[in-house]
Amino acid sequence: MSIYDVTIIGGGPAGLAAGIYASRAALKTVLIEKGMPGGLAASTEMIENYPGFAEGIGGPELMMQMDAQARGFGLEVQSANAESIIEGEGYFTVITDDGEIKTKTIILTTGAQSQKLDIPGEAKFHGRGVSYCATCDGAFFKGKEVAVVGGGDAAVEEALYLTKFASRVHLIHRRDELRATKILQQRAQVNEQIVFHWSNIVEEIRGEQTVQEILLKNVVTGQTSSLKVDGVFAYVGTRPVSEIVSGLIQLNPKGYIVTDDEMHTSKPGIFAAGDIRQKLLRQVVTAVADGAIAAVAAEKYIEQ
To answer: Of 10, 125, 131, 200, which is most buried with the most CB atoms under 10 A?
Structure first.
């Protein structure tokens, strides 16, 4: 029976960094990823705050380079969906939709997904005007009007990106000021294509075959209004993809994995890194650091 030293579940920045460090340490390492490597970072048009790239670097490009680097050190990558984890004597078994993997340690880097709005019309028009990725779908809205829901960094970044295609971008935020970093706020506020709708929430998405309008509600006055748009991009936060370890290790009330500074979870031999972890800052740079630490911690765990 072949047993891996390290099994990484998730192929975003944290998973790829863990793969680089574990493989370079000559550990028999496999990374399981159900989609394209890169995670959310791969759907980000431009990353400006990753050290070493003064002009910024495209998210897909950065993730492709990390993937190539990890494979160059011998990382094995399996395209599969990890479904469950079973604890055994001296090893774990990861059950995937393509078979089983025996492993001494596991590094969870499953990340986080875009939070849904949970309003009428959202599910109906998903893929027909409702999107959670401007980089993926922005080009479909050339010359049209779109709405971006949210007020954080992701919402403002994507609103700015969408101005390349859309004739007008309506930024809808439930508060009366943005939560995004100041530099992003400034760029949005001077962009004439962006219209702000303060203290508003989207109550319903309407249309026939595709999105045609949204129903807004002012949270201060209670008044409702209709806004004609061809697309809705939702950026109201993220939720952790931690279902695979629910009941197995400690999660915080929001479902994020609790770790110590060395990425140990409450279960010896299982580590977590990146956006899935309870932490202050979820960025590519912190995900990469987490992944490196988790790989070294896993190596020390195996040695002991």
So the answer is: 10
For domain 4-113+238-303, the question of CATH label 3.50.50.60 is answered with yes
Q: Does domain 116-234 have CATH number 3.50.50.60?
A: yes
- Is there a catalytic annotation at residue 275? no
Annotated active-site residue in 67, 98, 118, 133 = 133
Q: Give yes or no: 137 in active site.
A: yes
Task: Give me the catalytic one of 137, 153, 275, 290.
Answer: 137
Q: Flag whether the pTM goes above 0.70.
A: yes
Is 15 in contact with 8 (CB distance < 8 Å)? yes
- On whether the CB atoms of residues 275 and 40 are closer than 8 A, the answer is yes
Tell me: the pLDDT tens digits for 176-224? 999 999 999 999 999 999 999 999 999 999 999 999 999 999 999 999 9
Q: Where in the chain is the domain with CATH 3.50.50.60?
A: 4-113+238-303, 116-234
5 is catalytic: no
Q: 82: buried, middle or exposed (CB in 10 Å: 19+, 13-18, 0-12)?
A: buried
